[in-house]
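Quick one:
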Amino acid sequence: MHFQDYIDHTLLVPTATISDIKKLCKEAIQYGFKAVCVNSCHVVLAKNELKGTPVQLATVVGFPLGGMSTKAKIFEARECIANGADEVDMVMNIGWLKSGLYEQVRDEIFQIKQELGDKTLKVILENCYLSDAEIRKACDLAVSAGADFVKTSTGFGSGGATFKDVALMKETVGNRALIKASGGIRDRETALKYIEMGVARIGTSSGPKLMEGS
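Output:
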């Protein structure tokens, strides 16, 4: 795999304009990134911009807090897939996890994966709010529910990806799921270190800068 095959070129800020999304898609095509990742309101636009290219379209569900009702998340996921998304990055219900409502956490992930079928599901754990034990538990729940990836962060919490957390996630999931590191990855050296650690995808808004190695 080439470096660009690891990159989810991401723009999730609330102020992102139509022209910003178009630029994001153009850059992803130019550099050959694996995917773009946008908010669900931009799925139709991004799908149109990426038409006829190998760049995948990822979107987010229950973003960025994860505290929406399960039905709301399922509806959002269903609409995203209907509108052409290839992948969904959903935020786990962090409050439920911390309350010990493990069956509810797992069932929500499972139901969303059922909506996606063979499309890729990444479950965002938001590690900055979790203890090591909670990260392990979240990984196990996501994997048992059928998630394809576990992901470190939204980029909107109190912290992003860390080497320590990724090592813990890798140790927990082994080969049962892939790992996406996201949040605060802004230079090539850091991204390469995560890839060396076994990360399969890097979520970053700094994709072109990473490609230029600056």
